[in-house]
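Researcher: I'd like a candidate sequence for this fold, 385 residues long. If you have to choose between options at a position, lean toward the conservative one.
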């Protein structure tokens, strides 16, 4: 299958070389793919960087600045591949991307595929395993060119033309999952997705354009950048309805699912109803709190007061804040501030969550009994007291 890697570049002199090197390093027959650089009216040395590569696979298209959507459409029209990948000029393709994408798209009934990816920010790299396509950024996708062309390509108006295309074709197009990292997503405050107001306005446009797709739009991944190390003082406040969308994203993160009582994806309508009940006090004995570090939401803690006199404690760390020791800090501070003198309990999925077991021990708890799961596909949980 002939493939095209399309790089939309605007004033990308500093990073384009790295992107091109990753595109050239594909574990794929050299004569079976091309690299198409669409220079979207750059005023720096972007074109010079592209021209510096002596590689017949690289083609360059230069145009006046028209934005990412039109640059993408130019790429679709000029591409010669059957398979299309969009690689941003500040990101890197993993060497196996094209080979894995080809395996997924060899089936003619598959219209697009999306994979896991590595997200890097401030020197910290995290593997992300999106639970559905709305959790994946554009660099994680591979598309059938003929299907994109038949739809007229991308539509303008937002910084997320890929999500607009998914919403437009939802229910008609069939996807496939690539279960390994396909690219490195380098995050930056200076990027479009680093501008929270621009992200919010784009999501609003999508909601207005596709009101019937509210549940799908609610699943679009968070693009909030975490700018702190996690060592700052923590603030714990009651959760509000304004937290609904972000907590939905956290709950449907794959690692969170694995540690939860149920590993099945959570539906938006169910989550929204649950949040409305919790934040309005309609769950007797249950309280949900959001933990913040220097103004950034980094996790949640929850308490459930039970009839047997125990208060059950649970927590979630935001995906991009894992590995910083926040879980223990959040839970210990929460217990100290909100549950002094209470008899504590915790339920931890058997054999799958050593971090939670360490936190339970820090609270002075120990395994007390095994609780069978109501779902035969899920392991039992161990109650700690």
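Model: Candidate sequence:
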């Amino acid at each position: 299958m002939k493939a095209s890697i399309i790089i939309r570049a605007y004033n990308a002199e500093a990073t384009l070389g790295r992107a091109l090197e990753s595109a050239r390093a594909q574990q794929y027959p050299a004569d079976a793919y091309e690299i198409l650089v669409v220079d979207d009216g750059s005023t720096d040395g972007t074109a010079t960087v592209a021209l510096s590569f002596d590689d017949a696979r690289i083609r360059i298209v230069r145009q006046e600045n028209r934005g990412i959507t039109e640059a993408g459409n130019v790429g679709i029209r000029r591409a010669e591949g059957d398979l299309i990948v969009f690689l941003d000029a500040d990101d890197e393709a993993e060497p196996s991307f094209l080979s894995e994408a080809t395996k997924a798209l060899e089936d003619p009934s598959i219209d697009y595929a999306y994979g896991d990816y590595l997200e890097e920010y401030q020197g910290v790299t995290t593997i992300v395993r999106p639970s559905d396509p709305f959790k994946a950024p554009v660099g994680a996708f591979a598309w059938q060119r003929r299907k994109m062309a038949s739809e007229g390509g991308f539509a303008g108006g937002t910084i997320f033309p890929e999500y607009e295309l998914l919403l437009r074709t939802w229910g008609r197009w069939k996807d496939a999952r690539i279960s390994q990292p396909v690219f490195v997503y380098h995050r930056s405050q200076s990027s479009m997705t680093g501008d929270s107001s621009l992200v919010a306005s784009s999501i609003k446009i999508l909601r207005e354009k596709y009101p019937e797709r509210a549940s799908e739009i609610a699943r679009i991944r968070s693009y909030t950048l975490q700018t702190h190390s996690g060592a700052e003082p923590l603030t714990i406040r009651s959760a509000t309805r304004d937290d609904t969308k972000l907590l939905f994203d956290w709950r449907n993160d794959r690692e969170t699912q694995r540690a939860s009582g149920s590993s099945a994806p959570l539906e938006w309508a169910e989550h929204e109803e649950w949040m409305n009940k919790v934040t309005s006090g309609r769950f007797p004995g249950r309280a949900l709190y959001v933990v913040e570090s220097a103004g950034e939401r980094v996790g949640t803690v929850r308490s459930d007061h039970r009839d047997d006199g125990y208060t059950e404690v649970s927590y979630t760390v935001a995906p991009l804040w894992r590995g910083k020791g926040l879980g223990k800090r959040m839970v210990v501070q929460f217990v100290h501030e909100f549950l002094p003198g209470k008899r504590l309990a915790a339920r931890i999925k058997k054999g799958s969550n050593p971090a939670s077991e360490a936190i339970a021990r820090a609270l002075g708890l120990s395994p007390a009994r095994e609780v069978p799961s109501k779902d035969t596909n899920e392991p039992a949980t161990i109650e700690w007291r």
